[in-house]
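Lab notebook page, bench 4
Experiment: in silico fold of construct C2
Operator: M.H.
Input chain length: 89 residues
Purpose: comparison with the prior construct
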Amino acid sequence: MIQMKNNHILIKEIVAENKSKGGIYVPRPKYNRKAIVLAVTNTPQIKKGDIILRNIGKSTKHKINNENCEIIHISDIIAVLKNIKDAKT
């Protein structure tokens, strides 16, 4: 279990599928802003499992349990996606 401190959040990038419904491979975007929250400080705005949009380039990369994760500050979150449709696209 990881307990984050000082308003920092542990996130994992959501990798979009790069194949269209017709079977055409679409290149991945250079910068992915969507991520899922894995661990968070005690804050009412963000909770574990939330899908967020974040700023690019303001993170600390870290490998936990053989998975690439990032640590960001709560102020680097642009939005929390509440609608499932918004989170998947």
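Observations: The beta strands are 8-13, 34-40, 51-54, 60-64, 67-73, 77-81. The longest helix spans residues 84-88.
Next step: discuss at group meeting.
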